[in-house]
């Protein structure tokens, strides 16, 4: 019999992400690391980015934003320590790159890698513990997107994603590995600069349906896990106070397009637990809007809300804050975030910090996240800040 301490950590990861202590009908999925915000800018604004201005990490939030970037090319690198208060070798890394092909189109790619640290495998033989070595379970995604500007103010994008999960539940078995693919469909609107009372402003809105794809199958049995198909939509307003100062207000709504767990009864009709319904992912997406046992009120409770604020000074320094809220019955994730950004010529450095406001601990609580962005070509004319001229739009 082997002792795998990582199983305790990983299979509670979905619980830590959804904090399933208030209800037996909290939605959980496979590869839950796809729900972790990796870049520090979005993390500093309450974990949102579907309707914020374009940056080097838009691939995760809304790839349709890339065609509105003020740079022609960009590279992003981020690092997020996870469960840092318990272990020091679980982390999420993200590398991304985008390139604008012309003023109407762009492409981007990114790699997300989630390491669950070194796991010790042991055998119990004759009352003794025999060391069987260590493994490093991990999961990753590799994706590619294409965005097209359909008008001066509106764009759409599609992305394809390869998903691989290798949990290594046993050293001599490959049944713990699973793979799938996902598709993202995204849209983004960015207005021209307009007058708002005595100031100028830019309005943005965005939508992204991400990770549309088949279930994961970790073994040869019938048990399969939905991947975290997710619907995000949001709006934002950048208030251009003057040539040097701007203030952005953002809000975002998100809902997992995964079926609500259904009750399971024994032969005597006694409730024995809850499990995901045995349906395919397409039916799961459509039924996720109307399958809650308590009706509309429970469906609405599955929607999370994020609010964010970003102040920018001369495109050189930014401070951010945000708040994320989830129903107590559907996970009770509630936290305040703060962050800052610094521009050093063609390099952007962002950091963020999270404070939990829920009675349930957040695995990212008191954790500093870092992002580094390299703006390779800054000759594009698309404005995203107060220093840009109205005529350039």
Task: Describe this protein's structure.
- There is one protein chain.
- The chain has 393 residues and is mainly beta.
- The protein has a single domain, classed as monomeric porin ompg (Porin, Beta Barrel), CATH 2.40.160.
- It is built from six helices and 19 strands.
- Strands 1-2-3-6-7-8-10-11-12-15-16-17-18-19 form a 14-stranded antiparallel beta barrel.
- β4 and β5 form a beta hairpin.
- The longest helix is centred in the last third of the chain and has 7 residues.
- The radius of gyration is 22 Å and the shape is globular.
- The termini are far apart.
- 40% of the residues are buried.
- The N terminus and C terminus are likely disordered.
Which short descriptors sum up this protein?
14-stranded antiparallel barrel, two-stranded antiparallel sheet, about 400 residues, 19 strands, mainly beta, disordered N terminus, about 45% strand, globular, Porin, disordered C terminus
Summarize the SSE layout with pairings:
Blueprint: H1 5-10, H2 13-18, H3 40-44, H4 58-61, E1 73-81, E2 91-100, E3 105-115, E4 119-125, E5 128-135, E6 138-149, E7 154-166, E8 177-190, E9 194-196, E10 199-212, E11 230-240, E12 245-256, E13 262-265, E14 271-275, H5 281-287, H6 296-301, E15 303-313, E16 317-325, E17 334-344, E18 347-356, E19 369-377
Antiparallel strand pairs: 1-2, 1-19, 2-3, 3-6, 4-5, 6-7, 7-8, 8-10, 9-10, 10-11, 11-12, 12-15, 13-14, 15-16, 16-17, 17-18, 18-19
Q: What is the domain tally?
A: 1
Q: Which structural category fits the helices and strands?
A: mainly beta
Beta-strand proportion: over 45%
* Shape by Cα distribution: globular
Unreliable stretches (pLDDT < 50, length at least 5) are 1-22, 380-393
Q: How many E-type strands?
A: 19
Per CATH, the superfamily is monomeric porin ompg
User: Biggest sheet: strands side by side, in what order?
Assistant: 1-2-3-6-7-8-10-11-12-15-16-17-18-19
Mean pLDDT: 84
Give the CATH class: Mainly Beta
- The count of helical stretches stands at 6
Q: Provide the CATH architecture.
A: Beta Barrel
H/E element order: HHHHEEEEEEEEEEEEEEHHEEEEE
Report helical residue fraction: under 10%
Distance between the termini: 66 Å
In the CATH hierarchy, the third-tier topology is known as Porin
Radius of gyration: 22 Å
Mind describing the biggest β-sheet? Answer: 14 strands, antiparallel, barrel
């Amino acid at each position: 019999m082997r002792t795998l301490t990582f199983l305790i950590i990983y299979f509670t990861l979905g619980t830590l992400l959804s904090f399933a202590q208030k209800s037996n009908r909290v939605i959980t999925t496979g590869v839950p690391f796809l729900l972790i915000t990796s870049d520090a800018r979005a993390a500093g604004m309450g974990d949102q980015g579907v309707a914020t201005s374009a940056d080097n990490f838009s691939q995760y939030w809304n790839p349709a934003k890339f065609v509105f970037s003020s740079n022609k090319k960009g590279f992003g690198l981020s690092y997020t320590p996870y469960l840092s208060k318990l272990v020091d070798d679980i982390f999420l890394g993200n590398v991304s790159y985008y390139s604008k092909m012309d003023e109407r189109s762009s492409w981007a790619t990114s790699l997300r890698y989630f390491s669950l640290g070194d796991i010790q495998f042991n055998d119990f033989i004759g009352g003794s513990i025999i060391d069987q070595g260590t493994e490093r379970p991990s999961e990753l995604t590799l994706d590619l997107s294409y965005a097209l500007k359909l008008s001066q103010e509106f764009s759409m994008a599609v992305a394809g994603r390869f998903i691989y999960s290798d949990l290594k539940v046993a050293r001599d078995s490959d049944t713990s590995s699973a793979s799938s693919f996902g598709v993202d469909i995204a849209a983004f609107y960015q207005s021209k600069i307009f007058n708002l009372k005595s100031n100028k402003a830019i309005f943005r809105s965005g939508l992204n349906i991400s990770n549309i794809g088949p279930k994961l199958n970790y073994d040869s049995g019938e048990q399969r896990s939905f991947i975290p198909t997710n619907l995000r939509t949001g709006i934002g307003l950048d208030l251009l106070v003057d040539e040097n100062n701007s203030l952005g207000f953002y809000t975002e709504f998100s809902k997992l397009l995964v079926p609500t767990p259904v009750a399971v009864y024994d032969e005597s009709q006694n409730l024995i637990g809850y499990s995901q319904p045995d349906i395919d992912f397409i039916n799961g997406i459509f039924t996720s809007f109307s399958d809650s046992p308590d009706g509309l009120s429970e469906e609405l409770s599955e929607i999370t809300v994020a609010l964010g604020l970003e102040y920018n000074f001369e495109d050189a320094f930014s401070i951010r804050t945000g708040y994320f809220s989830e129903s107590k019955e559907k996970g009770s994730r509630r936290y305040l975030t703060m962050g800052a950004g610094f521009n050093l010529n063609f390099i952007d450095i962002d950091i963020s910090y999270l404070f939990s406001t829920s009675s349930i601990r957040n695995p990212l609580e008191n954790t500093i996240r870092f992002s580094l962005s390299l703006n390779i070509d800054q000759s594009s004319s698309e404005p995203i800040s107060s220093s840009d001229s109205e005529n350039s739009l």
